[in-house]
């Protein structure tokens, strides 16, 4: 799309393709949300969007991406990629920033359809957006956080070299819960072999960068 080049932006890894979802991708992503993202009785998200019936989860998924597209500005942006494995949409990986041109800091968030857990996909898709951030956009820092009982997310974060960066207390379903914050500096980032970014240059002004 000539006036929205973000739809031509993609990241490829040895096993995955990350791209802003087409409407067909978004339908498939909504199906993954409806099928389930985590076990019952557990809530890994700050906003409990996975509570509710399958149809409601599917609708929330589509609406979230529509809002991200409409709200994007050079000063406050979120790239929410559909993640494809062997041609199937398996989840979503986001990278976000505010005032990136000044702060050079991004944050990340993701989810993966439950039936695709345990295959190393979560690590690979996070590595993909870290490559975009550090190698593509010139980020100096990447931050993330997860609840202390979200062991899978914590394992991915530690595997990719982040360092602990404090804690935050939250109200989770009426009870206090702790998230562990993490930070990865550019000088400590280890590039993952086989990751490539495509179609980035036309997108840079939309992300607060001039491309020079």
TrEMBL record:
<feature type="domain" description="N-acetyltransferase">
    <location>
        <begin position="16"/>
        <end position="185"/>
    </location>
</feature>
<dbReference type="InterPro" id="IPR016181">
    <property type="entry name" value="Acyl_CoA_acyltransferase"/>
</dbReference>
<protein>
    <submittedName>
        <fullName>GNAT family N-acetyltransferase</fullName>
    </submittedName>
</protein>
<dbReference type="InterPro" id="IPR000182">
    <property type="entry name" value="GNAT_dom"/>
</dbReference>
<dbReference type="InterPro" id="IPR051908">
    <property type="entry name" value="Ribosomal_N-acetyltransferase"/>
</dbReference>
<dbReference type="Pfam" id="PF13302">
    <property type="entry name" value="Acetyltransf_3"/>
</dbReference>
